[in-house]
Amino acid sequence: MSEETKDLGLRERKKAATRTALSEAALQLAVERGLGNVRVEEIAAAAGVSLRTFNNYFASKEQAIAANATERVEAFAVALRARPPKEPLWDALVEVTRELFPSAPDRDWLTRARLMRKEPALFAEQAKADLEVERALAREIASRTHTDADRDVYPRIAAAAVVAAIHVGLDAWLAAPKKARLPDALADAVRQVARLESVPKRARGA
Asked: Both 70 and 60 in a single domain?
């Protein structure tokens, strides 16, 4: 590994650490004071960085809190792409869902999940994150089903159904977390969608 590659890796790790510190500071302050009583200057100070640095990473305090939701976009698509190509689509989606969520969510994860569901100011950030996940997921679903994510409805419907199932499953799990492990609860929600949908027979170009 060259020194240039090492330096690049170090810079990326520092960026990731700063992003995480800002997101955690925003979450903590929002819980303590209420989101409406938190200013971005205070978030930057709590994370030990300048306001300019905050603005380099996030456009708003809401975006900072929702950061972990947007980070799942690429992870979901990459995980689906890594599944065996001949694995049935919905089996792959169920297993990817199981892989991506923690078996024992920590306090910050739970706090963020609950805050995202009750704070109206965060709804728009959640919706944007969902849309990005759906688009990325639709492209991967299209690739696996020989459909077109732009022209065909199926991959987009399937992606939206997966995202919706995860939300419903998470809501149910947050209401009764002791009934099942989080990954199992969400995977089961996606599995129930699989019983409603089937891959279309028409392949792209047919």
From this structure: no
Asked whether residue 34 falls in the same domain as residue 8, the answer is: yes
Predicted TM-score (pTM) above 0.90: no
Task: Write out the chain in H/E/C secondary structure.
Answer: CCHHHHHHHHHHHHHHHHHHHHHHHHHHHHHHHCHHHCCHHHHHHHHCCCHHHHHHHCCCHHHHHCHHHHHHHHHHHHHHHHCCCCCCHHHHHHHHHHHHCCCCCCHHHHHHHHHHHHCHHHHHHHHHHHHHHHHHHHHHHHHHHCCCCCCCHHHHHHHHHHHHHHHHHHHHHHHCCCCCCHHHHHHHHHHHHHCCCCCCCCCCCC
CATH value at residue 71: 1.10.357.10
| pLDDT at 205 (0 to 100) | 47
Q: What is the pLDDT of residues 133-168, one digit of tens each?
A: 899 999 999 999 999 999 999 999 999 999 999 999
CATH number of the domain where residue 10 is located = 1.10.10
Q: Is residue 100 part of a domain?
A: yes
